[in-house]
Design brief:
- The mean pLDDT is 94.
- This protein is mostly beta strands and 442 residues long.
- The chain has three helices and 30 strands.
- The strands form seven sheets. The protein has a six-stranded mixed sheet, with no helix packed on it. A five-stranded mixed sheet has the order 3-4-5-6-30, with no helix packed on it. Strands 17, 18, 19, 20 and 21 form a five-stranded antiparallel sheet that branches.
- It is globular and about 55 Å long.
- 43% of the residues are buried.
- The longest helix has 23 residues.
- The two termini are 32 Å apart.
Length: 442
């Protein structure tokens, strides 16, 4: 089913802060989509944020109409596309809507995941995980690293878990963990990939069995940087203990080793219960990065590299244009997808490119305005239009050879459904306001 639904701002938030939708984002405010996730029962969750910063406004300004703010918003949609509920939390500082501090463990690169028991997991780096009730009514637990380096020192370890989570068909949790000192940085960034040895619940935090790393030797680590909940070879990861050879070492062995120094690990996706795609990108350059190397390695749960997603040209299909890092997967059918400014790509479980939709053509050019976020449990693609703040659900065909026709049909339906939503919601400059849906404060 092709569906389009809006990333709406709660009416109370808009009224409290008197948000002016006619202002340009360059004046210091904006709405940005982070991620979309789907549950097996058909519900869809969207994670996005709204913020405003005005120079000269004091921290703690009592007037919400003038105050700076940053909010995290999660909206839940039914299988039919109806908005069911929203949750709002202050990302930092005061929540002017109810005067409370946020219970979320936030950070950078925030993502969503629906766990096997239906609980919603909000994840952020470094190693922060928040468990939220499926109806968005409350926070069940928060696992936070409390790692504010280099801005907050000394570092006192908190209660961390993972910076991102994805679920395999049998319910295993594919996790990414950050480490301090990766590539000599003075902060914690993603470095480890592993599988949890059990379910994640408010009462139980499983051990993550690491099987891959990107930097084999992070610098300036001490005993406080050893992570007891992440293990390799039965020992906690940290100092000199982590999986080797690392992904960067394996890729450097293929040539141009200097290009992989400083490489970044992005969110991996599962292709099966024991097969994963690990995306690695070379360090970006100030003068332009198109044509730099990247790798979508196929790695099993023992850390063995068994293949790669093939078929993309490093320059003509470069994900560095626009920084399009996302991969999405349908592990039930063994498919992986990637969308960037030059095309939509689809692979099978063996890593063979089965479809490439060229955005240089008139038919598929509208895809350049979307960001690929995830696949639903049934395999449909979830795209976000970053300027019109709409989510588009694209049904995936049984045969990837029919993907072009399916996408063309979805883009045509998007135009009609968008027009219908405009009549219903009357947005202002593509900003949607919802005055009636229940709002929970987390």
């Amino acid at each position: 089913m092709i569906q389009t639904f809006p990333l709406a701002l709660p009416g109370t938030l808009v009224d409290t802060h008197r948000i002016d939708f006619t202002r340009l984002y360059s004046t210091g405010w904006g709405v940005v989509a982070h991620d979309v996730a789907a549950a097996p029962n058909g519900d869809v969750y969207a994670l996005y944020g709204v913020s405003r910063y005005t120079s000269g406004v004091a921290e703690g300004e009592p007037d919400p109409a003038r105050a700076n703010f940053a909010y995290v918003i999660i909206t839940r949609y039914s299988a039919q596309g109806e908005v069911l509920a929203s949750a709002v939390a202050g990302r930092s500082g005061r929540n002017y809507l109810d005067g409370t501090e946020s219970a979320l463990a936030t950070g950078s690169d925030m993502t969503l995941c629906v766990l096997p028991d239906g609980t919603l997991s909000l994840n952020a780096h470094p190693n922060s995980t928040t468990l939220i009730a499926s109806d968005l009514s409350r926070v069940l637990a928060a696992y936070s690293s409390d790692d504010g380096r280099p801005f907050r020192k000394p570092y006192v370890p908190g209660n961390p878990f993972a910076g991102s989570i994805s679920v395999t068909p049998s319910g295993r949790l594919l996790c990414v963990a950050s480490e301090y000192g990766v590539w000599n940085y003075g902060s914690a960034i993603p470095n480890l990939v592993g599988v949890a040895d059990g379910p994640l619940t408010p009462e139980h935090k499983p051990v993550i069995r690491a099987f891959a790393s990107i930097d084999p030797e992070p610098k300036h680590q001490g005993e406080v940087d050893v992570q007891p909940h992440v293990r390799h070879g039965g020992e906690p990861v940290g100092l000199t203990r982590r999986p080797r050879p690392s992904l960067s070492e394996l890729l450097a062995g293929e040539g141009y080793s200097w290009r992989w120094h400083g490489a970044r690990l992005k969110r991996p996706v599962p292709l099966a219960d024991d097969l994963f795609v690990l995306p690695v990108y070379a360090r970006t350059l100030r003068g332009g990065s198109r044509g730099l190397p990247f790798s979508y390695s196929l790695v099993d749960d023992q850390g063995a590299t068994v293949g790669r997603l093939d078929g993309m040209h490093p320059y003509r299909d470069s994900p560095f244009t626009g920084f399009c890092w996302n991969l999405a997967s349908d592990p039930h059918r063994g498919r992986a997808y990637h969308l960037n400014r030059y095309g939509l790509f689809a692979w099978n479980k063996a890593g063979e490119l089965r479809a490439r939709l060229d955005t240089g053509t008139k038919t598929h050019r509208p895809l350049t305005r979307f960001t690929l976020t995830a696949c639903t449990p049934s395999g449909d693609l979830l795209l976000v239009h970053q300027k019109q703040h709409l989510v588009l659900r694209v049904p995936a065909p049984d045969d990837l050879g029919d993907l072009a026709a399916s996408v063309e049909q979805a883009l045509g339906a998007y135009t009609k459904q968008r027009t219908a939503l405009k009549k219903q919601w009357t947005p202002e400059n593509w900003h949607w306001t919802d005055p009636s849906t229940p709002v929970h404060h987390l």
